[in-house]
Backbone:
């Protein structure tokens, strides 16, 4: 079973703010890490490989530095890794990102299964997985909480819906997005780190893709446009209280008593 | 695209630009300063950098004929015909938005044996409900549902489509939007309509304390998803109005590579998104044992307990009890936040509560920006004192 795992490098913290006066984005320390939800996707792939053999390939789109997350996937056990990087990919929204990933995946390998994390911590949209599946023309199942059975041409998974658990059997190749806690991610291994120290991510750019039309990538290929960014509205009227613990408890007490919560 | 006028660069300007970019996208390359793929096109360097050094060059795009796309469509989210309430909230919002453009409000109902439920929507002010009622559509399976959605869009050509950000919506909307290569904005918290039919979509972005205003100016339809309990449902009218239109689709479009083998109901404790009163705990609560006083307070008020992401990560809570963008959205009558600093992620999940009381020791905590009542103090003093007071009146109440 050949598996592709989509990963993303995200900011290490979420302490991003807009200066309310200048409108300038402030990002404290641009440290970055692998999107935590992707660890579950990678672990799922490694578990399947241990059971069924085959290979695990990680893929990401980003600046050349995003190679760091591909190295991280090596330390956990990925066999190959790809970074899709090109200035022409800059400013990509979900559609352009998904299309770029699908072009990259088509270029790199035969695959039976593609696994994505549930969402990223910086975008939080959970949209890229389904859109990649659409561009590859394969079925997808989102919110997978359990892998129940893996056959040569089919996979049976449990989908975690709001009120129900659904078991679906899907023909391969397909794409799944996995819930956090589907498996506990392993820690990067020191041994593998040493072993994979000469292993390098492969870099692909637009010129490597089947579709070389610039209009389909980056800002040009993005139907959505961010018009402006601004700090959240804090215009709500509010009443502040200070005092001792007892005085403050009194305040809350009378507030909720007035509104008949007691 | 962005163009750097290399001749205007000095060492100082280079340094300034490198530190100005919030995404670290400027790199020194062989031909001088370059912009890497880390660029998010926020154009900060154009607006805030030294004038004329970095320029934004708008490329000509083909434009869509917006007059060909008419109507605001709400996707009817349902489980086996039971309509999810987010649907009604979106209908309410669509009606508001439609006033600007005079477009009709439509509902798209995909399922099996759902004609009766479709009638129900006519009491909420929908002009037309389009129903695809086929046995094959009994369960949500991605390919046939996407095919039906595609068929609907090709036939009806709605200008904007609102989808509930449920598990189904978050899978179906992106798949369909991708098929049309059009924009989809997830988890919008504010929607406004322009006279030219562009839908203004606002959502928290970059995982931080930032809102982004997003538009899809050159593509139709415009897609967005909205969480449950962000908008308000309209009152049910006494009389139905509008009409129901049955739609047909070729059977081969209903085929799928996915088979549904089994569906079981989850054993769920009452969902926090339905709770009227919530006590939410955050990192200010130091140990898991201290949670006991939070539970006690919740019991006394008949409230549900909920929490922020760090407490889920600490393993103190069931993940279903997390409020925020990556958790649940709640809209209780009362929420008391205890030791929560109030990230935008969290606030997005609860700021529509009718009454927000926040307890935090830091007077500058962001939570006080959205709270109706802010109490600056030590939760370890306030909560026990409050518990005592409530107990006292409850005992007195029983005595009387």
Residues:
């Amino acid at each position: 079973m050949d598996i592709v795992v989509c990963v993303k490098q995200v900011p290490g913290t979420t302490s991003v703010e807009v200066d309310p006066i200048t409108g300038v984005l402030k990002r404290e320390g641009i440290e970055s890490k692998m999107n935590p939800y992707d660890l579950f996707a990678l672990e799922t792939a490694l578990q399947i490989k241990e059971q069924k053999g085959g290979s695990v390939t990680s893929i990401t789109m980003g600046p050349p530095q995003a190679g760091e997350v591909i190295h991280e996937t090596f330390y956990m056990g990925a066999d190959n890794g790809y970074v899709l990087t090109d200035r022409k990919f800059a400013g990509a929204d979900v559609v352009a990102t998904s299309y770029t990933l699908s072009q990259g995946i088509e270029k790199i390998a035969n695959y039976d299964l593609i696994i994505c994390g549930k969402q990223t911590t910086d975008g939080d949209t959970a949209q890229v997985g389904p859109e990649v599946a659409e561009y590859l023309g394969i079925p997808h199942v989102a919110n997978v909480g359990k892998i129940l059975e893996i056959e040569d041409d089919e996979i049976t998974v449990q989908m975690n819906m709001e009120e129900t658990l659904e078991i679906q059997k899907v023909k391969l190749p397909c794409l799944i997005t996995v819930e956090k806690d589907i498996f506990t991610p392993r820690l990067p291994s020191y041994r593998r780190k040493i072993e994979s120290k000469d292993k390098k991510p492969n870099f692909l750019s637009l010129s490597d893709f089947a579709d070389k039309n610039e209009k389909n990538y980056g800002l040009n290929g993005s139907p959505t446009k961010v018009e402006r960014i601004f700090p959240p509205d804090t215009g709500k009227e509010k009443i502040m209280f200070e005092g001792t613990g007892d005085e403050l408890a009194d305040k809350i007490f009378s507030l909720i008593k007035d509104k008949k919560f007691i | 695209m962005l163009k750097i006028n290399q001749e205007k660069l000095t060492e100082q300007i280079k340094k300034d630009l490198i530190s100005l970019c919030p995404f670290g996208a400027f790199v020194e390359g062989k031909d001088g300063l370059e912009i890497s793929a880390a660029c998010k096109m926020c154009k900060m360097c154009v607006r805030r950098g030294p004038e004329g050094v970095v320029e934004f060059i708008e490329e000509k795009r083909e434009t869509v004929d917006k007059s060909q796309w008419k109507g605001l469509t709400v996707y009817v989210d349902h489980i086996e015909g039971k309509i999810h309430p987010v649907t009604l909230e979106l209908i309410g919002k669509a009606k508001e938005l439609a006033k600007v453009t005079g477009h009709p409000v439509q509902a798209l109902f995909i399922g099996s044996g759902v004609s009766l439920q479709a009638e129900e929507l006519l009491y909420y002010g929908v002009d037309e409900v389009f129903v695809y009622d086929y046995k094959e559509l009994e369960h949500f399976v991605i390919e046939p549902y996407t095919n039906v959605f595609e068929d609907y869009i090709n036939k009806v050509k709605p200008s904007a489509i609102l989808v509930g950000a449920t598990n189904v919506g978050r899978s179906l909307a992106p798949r369909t939007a991708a098929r049309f290569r059009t924009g989809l904005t997830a988890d919008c918290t504010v929607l406004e309509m322009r006279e030219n039919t562009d839908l203004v979509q606002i959502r928290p972005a970059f995982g931080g304390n930032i809102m982004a205003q997003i538009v899809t100016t050159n593509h139709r339809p415009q897609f967005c998803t909205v969480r449950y309990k962000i908008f308000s449902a309209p009152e049910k009218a006494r009389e139905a109005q509008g009409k129901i239109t049955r739609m047909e689709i070729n059977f081969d479009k209903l085929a799928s590579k996915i088979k549904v083998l089994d569906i079981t109901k989850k054993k769920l404790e009452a969902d926090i998104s339905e709770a009227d009163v919530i006590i939410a705990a955050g990192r200010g609560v130091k140990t898991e044992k201290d949670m006991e006083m939070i539970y006690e307070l919740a019991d006394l008020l008949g409230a549900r307990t909920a929490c922020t992401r760090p407490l889920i990560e600490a393993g103190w809570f069931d993940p279903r009890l997390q409020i925020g963008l990556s958790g649940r959205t709640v809209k209780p009558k009362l929420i008391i936040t205890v030791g929560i600093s109030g990230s935008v992620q969290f606030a997005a999940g609860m700021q529509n509560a009718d009454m927000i009381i926040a307890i935090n020791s830091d007077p500058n905590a962001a939570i006080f920006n959205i709270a109706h009542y802010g109490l600056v103090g030590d939760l370890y003093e306030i909560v026990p004192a409050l518990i005592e007071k409530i107990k006292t009146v409850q005992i007195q109440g029983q005595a009387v």
About this structure: Chain A touches chain B through 105 residues (CB under 8 Å). The first strand of chain A starts at residue 2 and ends at 6.
